[in-house]
Design brief:
Elements lengths: L14 H21 L13 E3 L2 E3 L2 H12 L2 H17 L2 E2 L2 E6 L6 E3 L3 H9 L11
Helix pairs in contact: 1-3, 1-4
Length: 133
């Protein structure tokens, strides 16, 4: 298991947090599956496209290489681990975020805080404005 990996979710967990945990679990599963059987499928050198038997390196092929490298299994696992650490830091403490202070009020923001919900939105959570559970 990657640090902070949780199977399932808490009963009554906010839907955005449940979505985020599920997205992390699926990303880890896909990254591990992609990295295990054939490491040589992932580029270790610049991506080169062949057109009529000639190598072509253009800004577009360099952009494709950057995109592929960004989504390599190791990179995906590092991002999930970092996000799980952020989720742990922004923990639910009696319905309040352990980290985020409410501007001007001196208290803590309600949980999940905008940081946690922002992570869920980055993974495609459609219910950013959904009420808490």
């Amino acid at each position: 298991m990657v640090q902070g990996e949780v199977l399932g979710g808490d009963v009554g967990e906010h839907p955005g947090v449940g979505f985020l945990r599920q997205a992390h679990a699926e990303a880890v599963e896909r990254a591990r599956a992609a990295s295990e059987p054939a490491l040589l499928l992932w580029p270790t050198h610049p991506v080169e496209f062949l057109l009529a038997g000639q190598e072509v390196t253009t800004p577009e092929t360099r952009a494709a290489e950057a995109h592929i490298r960004l989504h390599m299994p190791e990179a995906a696992l590092r991002r999930v681990e970092a996000e799980r650490a952020i989720l742990a830091d922004h923990a639910d403490v009696d319905g309040r975020c352990a980290v985020c202070a409410e501007p001007g009020a001196g208290g803590r923001l309600g949980w999940p805080c905008p940081t946690v919900l922002g992570l869920a939105r980055a993974w495609g959570w459609p219910g950013a404005d959904a009420p808490t559970a």
